């Protein structure tokens, strides 16, 4: 059967001398792996469209098992993401987290939407670090985690001072601080921001101007949730951390802003 899917290339690995196995996140069928014959050859018409981050339309022949990519046509080749090292680093993290958390074999329109919005936002020049935080929070349910952020996880109160509790799985109020000796106290702004990352649409997140310390703080919380509660540690996270430690790149980044 021949399928036409809108998709994004999550990854492509070499298979044999000239083929690639391409993992696509599609709008219609969710995550799909398919064989792209000859795609490793630069002259192949499949060479370009099977590059990571490519957004396009893919014609896949599949009866059972792995399909074969027949044709691809790109809508957006994500040029900025392909050429800017900082954008590449964050986009690599985003495709990796989607690949790790989404299972093959069923449509996942919500995850597809998060992915396409995030890559488009980075491509358009929004702060890739804030966009990545947005993806981290939004993808938590796919890791089986639904943080309680609308009220206190201990007693349901919506007023008072708040902290984040990994043990309670979300915010807890000052009346419940005794439930967890390892709480992280939150200012009202931090509370509001975390809630935003989890609930608001991406356009609003992209427009936020966040201080580096604020992003670091929120990132620390969400990274700890992933690492300690799901055991997931992504390879591309180390690349981002390396970039953050490189003073030259930091400087260039600031001058661009
Ligand atoms: Zn409480």
List the helices and strands and how they pair.
Elements: E1 2-15, E2 19-26, E3 30-36, E4 55-61, E5 67-76, H1 79-83, H2 85-101, H3 109-123, H4 128-139, E6 162-165, E7 170-173, E8 184-186, H5 188-199, H6 202-207, H7 212-230, H8 235-245, H9 247-256
Protein architecture, described:
The protein is an alpha+beta fold and 257 residues long. The protein has helices spanning 79-83, 85-101, 109-123, 128-139, 188-199, 202-207, 212-230, 235-245, 247-256, and strands at residues 2-15, 19-26, 30-36, 55-61, 67-76, 162-165, 170-173, 184-186. Helix content is 42%, strand content 22%. The chain has a 5-stranded mixed beta barrel with strand order 1-2-3-5-4. A 3-stranded antiparallel sheet has the order 7-6-8. Helix 2 packs parallel to helix 4 (128-139), helix 3 (109-123) packs antiparallel against helix 4 and helix 4 (128-139) packs parallel to helix 7. The radius of gyration is 20 Å and the shape is elongated. The protein starts with a strand and ends with a helix. The mean pLDDT is 91. The structure holds zinc ion. Zinc ion (ZN) binds at residues 152, 154-155, 157, 172-173, 175-176.
């Amino acid at each position: 059967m021949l399928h036409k899917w809108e998709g994004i290339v999550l990854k492509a690995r070499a298979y044999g001398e000239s083929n690639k196995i391409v993992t696509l996140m599609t709008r219609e069928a969710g995550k799909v792996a398919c064989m792209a014959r000859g795609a490793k050859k630069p002259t192949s018409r499949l060479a370009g469209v099977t590059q990571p981050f490519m957004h396009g339309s893919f014609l896949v022949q599949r009866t059972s098992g792995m399909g074969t990519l027949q044709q691809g046509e790109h809508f957006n080749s994500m040029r900025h993401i392909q050429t800017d090292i900082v954008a590449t680093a964050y986009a690599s993290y985003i495709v990796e987290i989607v690949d790790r958390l989404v299972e093959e074999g069923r449509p996942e329109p919500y995850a597809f939407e998060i992915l396409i919005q995030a890559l488009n936002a980075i491509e358009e020049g929004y702060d890739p670090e804030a966009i990545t935080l947005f993806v981290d929070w939004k993808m938590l349910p796919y890791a089986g985690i639904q943080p309680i952020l609308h009220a206190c996880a201990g007693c349901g109160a919506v007023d008072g001072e708040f902290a984040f509790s990994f043990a309670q799985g979300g915010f807890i109020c000052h009346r419940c601080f005794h439930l967890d000796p390892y709480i992280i106290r939150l200012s009202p702004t931090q509370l509001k921001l975390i809630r935003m990352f989890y609930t608001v649409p991406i356009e609003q997140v992209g427009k936020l101007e966040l201080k580096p310390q604020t992003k670091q703080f929120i990132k620390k919380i969400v990274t700890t949730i992933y690492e300690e509660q799901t055991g997931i540690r992504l390879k591309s996270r180390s690349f981002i951390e390396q970039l953050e430690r490189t003073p030259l790149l930091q400087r260039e980044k600031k001058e661009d802003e």
